[in-house]
Amino acid sequence: MSLSQNLFTRAKQSIPGGVNSPVRAFLSVDLSPLFIQEGRGAYLIDVDGKQYIDYVLSWGPLILGHAHPLVIDAVQEQLKLGTSFGAPTVIEVALAEKVLSFFPSMQQVRFVSSGTEACMSAIRLARGFTGRNKIIKFAGCYHGHADSVLVNAGSGGLTFGVPSSQGIPLQVSQDTLVASFNDLNAVEHLFKRHADDIAAIIVEPVAGNMNLVLPQDDFLTGLRKLCDEYGALLIFDEVITGWRVSQYGAQGYYQVRPDLTVLGKIIGGGFPAAAFGGRDDIMNKLAPLGPVYQAGTLSGNPVAMTAGLATLTQLDNASLYDDLSARTQQLVNGLSQAAKDAGIPFQAQAIGAMFGFYFTSSPTIRHEDDVKACDLNRFKKFFAGMLKEGIYLAPSAFEVGFMSSAHSEQDIIDTIQKSKIVFAELS
Ligand code: KE4
Fold this sequence. Notes:
Helix content: 25-40%
Strand content: 5-15%
Mean pLDDT: 96
Bound molecules: ligand KE4
CATH architecture of the largest domain: 3-Layer(aba) Sandwich
Radius of gyration: 21 Å
Structural class: alpha/beta
Strand order of the largest sheet: 4-10-9-8-7-5-6
CATH topology of the largest domain: Aspartate Aminotransferase, domain 2
CATH superfamily of the largest domain: Type I PLP-dependent aspartate aminotransferase-like (Major domain)
Order of helices and strands: HEEEHHEHEHHEHEHEHEEHHHEEHHEEH
């Protein structure tokens, strides 16, 4: 038994499933999870001392890699001043200004402690602003685990084949309308049926919780037009895509302007932080100015704000994104060629510093059903083989991979080389 396996047995005595977030349990890949001792740049070191090239990066936040010295130094200085005050600080204002500088669609931003909290608050704000109740989401998209969006959810909800959680009152889920990603006709049909009661569409503009699914040419502009036509708000959940698909998120990459944006992961630089923001007329509805209540003990926590600001300060750099995109594309091209050489039906794609791969010969991945039709057993074997070779991928066929500026050219070459060994075992 490895130390990780022993620790997992111990963890299950005191924590449900031995984990504090379901996807970490490695259930969908039928393995025991690694317990991590340290993160260093592009690498994870587990409690048994084995090093892995990490393409999960804490599920996206660590675009600069683990323990970036500028982030660590800034946080250490802040810690000497205290950890939390429950009062305004200059650092949260500085981070707010920095966030707004990347997203011109946002005139104000409110910090919270998780993407779930940010999505939940953005939806409440949209309902308060419009006076309407219903929202439209997309099958396979994940917006955290608040009741109103844990319907046909992606990520863990999809990984475990339990698209809708128990414990959600029927009357809550009835206000959540679900369409298929990339299906504008389905969205228009919902608007025609519920015209004056749809408060908002919430969408991952690039889906990252049913594996990577890109918006097809007119999808995002079509959502914008429908929201304008029917008086609903367009909410872009950019918890993954913010500073990931480009330094200006998916809204910058596709040039589509949402009314509200949700941000998370990278914004906290590895600490618990998230945010939601948008136009003044919408944000001014929020307490203490307006009637939509939202609050949080650790919202704007100075340590998390410090880590976020230290991170975002490094991201105001076009050449960094050129390098990230090039490295991600190099990885995807290398994996695709290795699979082809081994005769394995395999597709892979990248956008910015995120990537997805699929065991299928179908060249198009347009929505959740296309991903579910892929060979999930082959994914499991590939995941296990790569882990054995020291490559740490997301332990689910419904998640994506992430690149950091700490990944070297040699790391990419090594990853591709090791994939050749694993693909050969699959053929
Ligand atoms: P958190 O509450 O986990 O901080 O954020 C929820 C969330 C909201 N929106 C999007 C697009 C997200 O991807 C997430 C969280 N992502 C998952 C995995 N893709 C986090 C990993 C986990 O659940 O453990």
